[in-house]
Write the structure tokens for this entry.
Amino acid sequence: MIGEPLPRRISDPQRRRELLDSGAIFTAQRTVRGDAVSQDHRLKFDGVARYLQDAGQDHLLHIRHDEIHPHWVVRRTVIEILAGGEQPDVLDIERWGSKIGSRWCNVRIDLDGHRGTRVETEAFWINFNVETVTPSALSDSFVNTVGSAAEPGVLRWKKWLDPAPHVDAFEVPFLLRAADLDIIQHVNNAVYWTALEEVLATQPDLRERLPMRGVVEHNSPLQIEDAPQLLAYRAGQTLYAWLVAGDRTAAAMSVESLP
């Protein structure tokens, strides 16, 4: 399995109540719509990615840090689709900081469906200063709130995926659209997961197998004029993919079948 097991959800009832009351744990609910479900009646990776983005913005609003830390850059997202459930499902979403540093944090989000959907995720987010185009220090108030749910220890970046495409990688048709750009004129994070779904569609036996884990690691931002090439390579039960723009790899991705 690529990478490491995701941290467990906080289960102690009293501890959970304290963290919910402080805003360290944030909860929400979403109804799964048709465009988030695959032809196999599975919640799609890009659909999950959009729920994660919404939950992140809502959490910041909930703890009143949306103006203190308005800009974040995701470095890696891990999505484990553990059970497909019956669709359309209603999802209970829970979000908390699993580890925190001075300028970045790991954030866990679990999605539990009323009809059997089960998804676990974790993302490495960097607090970003758009004026200096550099990571920015987290405020004490953010660390004291979100960090109160985090595991102790130092959080450092550790790459999971090789950014260099495999020599035998094959190309998968993929086109960026104007609608893929977000408010800062970069390709939205969920679009990378759409690319991974395109790659997964070339492997029907893997596409239909649950549980599965997807990983997207961002190396540099994409814009429309980059016209990236989507490459893929399969090794056993793991499918690797890369979005390549010229001589740089904007993102390295993978999807694998879990035991």
